[in-house]
Amino acid sequence: MSREDAASRAGVQEVDDLFWQSSSEPVVESDEELERIVRDAELPVLLVALAAALDDTSFLDPSLRPPLTPMDTAPVPHGGMDEEQQRRAREVALAGLRRLRETGTTRIGGLPADRRRELLGFLSGGREEWFDMLGHELVLTPEDGARPGWSADEIPGAEDFTVLIVGAGVGGIAAAYRYAQAGLPYTHIEQGSVVGGTWAKNTYPGVRLDTPTFGYSYSFAQRGDWPHQFAEGREIAEYLEEVVDRAGLRERVEFRTSLVRLRWDEDACAWAATTVGPDGVEQERMFSAVVSGLGLLDRPNIPDFPGADTFIGVAMHSQEWDHDVDVRGKRVAVIGTGASAYQIVPAIADDVASLTVFQRSAPWMLPAPNYHHEVGDSFSWLVRKVPHFAQWFRLWVILTGIEGRAHTVTMEDDWDGAPLSISRKNHELREYLAGRIRDQLASRPDLLEIAIPEYPPGAKRMLRDNGVWARALLADTTTVVTSGVDHFTPTAIVDGEGIAHEVDIVVYATGFRPSEFLEGIPVVGRGGVELHDFWAGNARAYNGITVPGFPNFFLVYGPNVGGVVAGSLHFMLERAVEFSLTSIREVLERGKRAIDVRREALDRFVDYVDAGNRRMAWGQPYVRTWYQNAQGRVTAIWPYTNIEYWNLTEQVVPDDHEFLP
Ligand code: NAP
Q1: Tens-digit pLDDT profile for residues 23-61
Q2: What 3 state SS string does 188-236 have?
Q3: What angle in degrees, to the nearest 10, is found between the helix axes of 569-589 and 170-182?
Q4: How far is the CA of 629 from the centre of ligand 1 (A)?
Q5: For a tag site, which of 100, 390, 498, 574 has the least CB within 10 Å?
Q6: Whose CA is nearest to atom 23 of ligand 1?
Q7: What is the chain's Cα-based Rg?
């Protein structure tokens, strides 16, 4: 069966993009209007989109190549093109838009490989080592993307190779999509009653993406008409729902079905999976492989504060927001100042009678004046009228994010500014961000004294600042407490100085237990070894995906694959899915039944990833962050770029693996 046949069987159109639009709207606007649009446009993107649409590389004059100036806090407009480059690029782009209008061009054919290289070379400053990874993300023809180049019915035995996919969040959906394309028989279970994972669960006031929307989508579902520059949580949840519907995956999800335990059956060379469905009855089913799409930020961390159980008001974790609770006119406490609190506090500050924010450590904030902005008229116009502008823009966000802000949070040997900074660049960033905080809180020395973090920028997640956080803290009705929570009474939280804060509602914005992968799910592998015993509190997986002794068991969002200052998470998760499929294909083609990674390969990977993390702000021994586990080892973060991960996961290295039986 050809790739196209396999795809169409999986309900996927020819181009591997669920949001594919084969034509754009015609350009009919006046020159003046086109000039206005060009003035607002991100120029490198517009130039390559025009070059592709008009099949004319004269748009890509080498002197117009963006220098890709590294971003310190936010993407540098036009990749750092200087004024003169921008002026000339606008002239060229305007001529291009006129030509679109004159020629009535509304669609493009496939891009030949050499043309693609030229376009990628222009955008990337000639970094050829990026091209393959970027090709994974630029899906403009049926040959592009990461569709499996094989189908189960081409390989003897594949039709009996059954797979359990656990979870229907970002990772689980990616897995279902690719497994459907490969035609492998799979069962997909989801504990909740909707898809979307974290985006379905987190509905607290103010929830939205804190990374640019266009970098946060699947390569195979390149939505173009996003309303916001930083999407609202609801928009991401709806996108995931739509992906599942467009791909025809929904009817294959067994909702309200949880994985209870897994046991490797040595004789059957398969996993015995115990699940509990909506009827509450346990069922054991056999699968050749298991793909876990369970997330990291899923298990609420609710500290065990003395007396909390006597509190008579409402208490809820940020992820379990009760929308029947009306915060208006109430006295509300928010414990924590991480990414969730940072969105909740400004969203409710104006409505509540009083707000008490318990801050253990202050957050670093990156300037983002556009944080709450819609995408803008000119941008929407470009998406509608320039063929595949949205795909090129998405690629640009991913491309400029490859190195991202990593250089600002990377350690410099012999730097003596610890524990406040880890390098000269990091120190400069600290001074700049602290200066902004000083400006914002100048009128309140009491707040200023506690608002500048005492750890290096980047050691914890940096948040996006458009002024609303400072405004909420400055409100007359807000109190920031830094002495900690000592205990609860039935009506109050008593702080570390013995002051009682009477409240009606307590919001635990106290984060998650991200290091405890597959918590509460016993996974018994070869020789009766249990996964959590093997990990002993220190989760490790080869490429973040596989664990020795647990054959045909794949983690999509496993240890050490998250990115915080660089890279696309969707790319990492898609790659893990692709690696799992390549592993299965290897098994089937060898006429074997299972693949198990070798211990030495895992250890080598862990040394590699640890060495990278030790050089980053979050890997310093004096820093405490959820990126680390209780032993102080960073388990959440991938310290390198998407390119290194691409290279590592490109093939299944035979020497790193054992094939069973
Ligand atoms: P978090 O970053 O772990 O923050 C938890 C907060 O609670 C921190 O301020 C922490 O203080 C505080 N805390 C924890 N235990 C405490 C205790 N016993 N007493 C007092 N304070 C305590 O959790 P989160 O805010 O839910 O965010 C988790 C992650 O989810 C983020 O880093 C991000 O990756 C993701 N997220 C993303 C978005 C988005 O994209 N828009 C939004 C929300 C969350 P310390 O800092 O001192 O530990």
Answers
A1: 999 999 999 999 999 999 999 999 999 999 999 999 999
A2: EECCCCCCCCHHHHCCCCCCECCCCHHHCCCCCCCCCCCCECCCEHHHH
A3: 40
A4: 14
A5: 498
A6: 511
A7: 26
